[in-house]
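re the bet — no i am not wrong, look at it urself. input seq straight from the record:
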Amino acid sequence: MDNINFAKIYSVSKLKRFEECPKAFHFEYLDPIYSQMKTQLKRDPANIWPFQIIGRSVHDAITLFLHLPIDKQNLENLKEQLKLTWRSEVMANKLPPLGKWGGFKALEEERENYQSALQMLINFNKVFDKEIPINYLPTKDLKNSIEDYKKLVKPISNDYDVSGKFDLILDEDNSLTIVDFKTSKREDFDDFQLQFYKLLAELNFNLPVNKASFYFLVTGNIKEFDLAKKETDEIKTMILTKIAKIQKEKKWSPKPSKLCQYCLFRTFCPAKKEVAKFIQEPIKENLNEDLPF
């Protein structure tokens, strides 16, 4: 697995990126210059958003919690995990408060977001059934979570692979239930995401996936989805059709929307005027050629 060709691997987020904006997809995955700038751009505080810190910290706290012995899985230990995971992705050694390295403009804002994360964990603890056997749990080595992604890579054709990351997979009556923890306020779902996860899980664990459960941690609500009737071959065909569309793309046109404000490449987008309508910060022109020094 050390010789993984990431260019031929498709995940849900990669496929969705193209649908959201072909230009952003090209910037991130194909452009020989801009695609190499991703790590640098992620380290800019202007590209760090509080919801990213909350989402990752809550997910990681749950992962660490579920790695604890069952007799240690209580609410107080769950809260302790959040103290460990409340970290910035770009300043891993920065202890809280994270400030700008967490996308927070003020200490009070960070405290409010931490409280929101705590409430999500409390809601999780109320509704999660610890008696159901776990089939798959992400690594507790959070700094090397990319290894989970690598281990899940599976071919769906001679030319392309699929992979991704699961929050959790439960084993219920010799069938799998995919669990996805949602930290956003909106209780919506993506049917394609569900089908993609079903295929990826069945390819990796050789058991049928009959159900998916979305845990909306803001409210503590759980929504379950029946996946038993989704045919694996049909899902493969759907994914390959999406990939074929990407391979045929020539124009890579920008698709301005409210998502532009979170795009790492928004200041390089050729559709600057259209993008400016959707973001709060002004778009700066590239004036390097006009500098006298």
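see?? Residues 132-249 form one domain. told u. also The CA atoms of residues 256 and 274 lie 6 Å apart. so pay up
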